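TA notes, week 10

Several of you asked for a full example with nothing omitted. So below is the full record: structure tokens for the whole chain, then the designed sequence directly under it. When grading your own attempts, check the secondary structure regions first.
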């Protein structure tokens, strides 16, 4: 099942963790939280913040995903038969409880638009998956990294980036000043986000005529040196970054931006594009 030996786990930042679904919790109309359990999940070392990892799901007819192993797992996975190899997607660690050997992952449900969304919508206790998770601290899987001299933090996200933003708020210290905007499809997706930071969180329900960009553009922002973290739909993220640089005068080096998805494009399309950039089709 692709488990990395202990000696390799100590030398490399990630390793494969076989897991199964323990619980499925609907936390909003478009968000489901899946709790994974596994004998080795106590060995996961999360960086906190927006800690990402690779999730492998079984193909139809498979009981568990077919995955590679070892340090060169990605070239191996690419060489596998696409109809056989495990479905691979990138997600964020929502919560990790080492003592209980449990790890939570939140999925945004966008209907029947891709294998991961379909799998999450139908997941039941006992369903199997494999997680490529960090096994050492500072494993390079967290993008939220405010530079020295940051006076305050700006965060934006939609429902796909909500777990990452939540992890950032949980990680931040009490003296950190934060302004955050979160856009979700339904009012019932709004929920408390625990944080010790001095955080002002604005929730936006997506409706015709509403715009996350317009909300940020109209906001009165604090003085001082900001650090911005922007994640969600790709075109929205690009527009927000352009506004912060061109209209707010924020230095490009003080902005981290990530497109988690792109409107009108499926998960499979994005994966094919990503693989094409390295010269091999999916």
């Amino acid at each position: 099942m692709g488990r990395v030996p202990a000696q390799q786990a100590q030398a490399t930042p990630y390793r494969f963790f076989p897991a199964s679904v323990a619980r499925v919790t609907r936390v909003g109309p478009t968000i489901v939280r899946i709790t994974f359990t596994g004998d080795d999940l106590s060995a996961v070392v999360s960086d906190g913040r927006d800690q990402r990892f690779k999730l492998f799901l079984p193909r139809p007819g498979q009981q568990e995903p077919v995955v590679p192993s070892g340090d060169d797992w990605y070239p191996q996975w690419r060489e596998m038969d696409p109809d056989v190899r495990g479905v691979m997607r990138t997600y964020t660690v929502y919560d990790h409880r080492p003592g209980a050997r449990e790890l939570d992952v939140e999925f945004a449900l966008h209907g029947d638009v891709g294998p991961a969304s379909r799998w999450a919508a139908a997941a039941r206790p006992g369903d199997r998956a494999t997680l490529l998770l960090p096994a050492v601290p500072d494993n390079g899987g967290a993008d939220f990294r405010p530079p020295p001299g940051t006076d305050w933090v700006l965060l934006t996200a939609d429902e796909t980036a909500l777990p990452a933003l939540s992890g950032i708020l949980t990680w931040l210290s009490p003296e950190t000043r934060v302004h955050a905007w979160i856009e979700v499809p339904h009012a019932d997706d709004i929920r408390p986000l625990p944080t010790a930071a001095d955080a002002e969180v604005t929730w936006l329900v997506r409706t015709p005529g509403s715009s996350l960009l317009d909300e940020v553009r109209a906001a009165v922002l604090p003085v001082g040196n900001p650090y911005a973290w922007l994640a969600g739909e790709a075109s929205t993220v690009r527009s927000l970054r352009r506004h912060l640089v061109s209209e707010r005068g924020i230095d490009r080096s003080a902005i981290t931006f990530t497109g988690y998805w792109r409107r009108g494009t499926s998960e499979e399309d994005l994966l094919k594009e990503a693989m094409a950039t390295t010269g091999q089709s999916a």
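The first strand starts at residue 14 and ends at 28. Use that as a sanity check on your answer.
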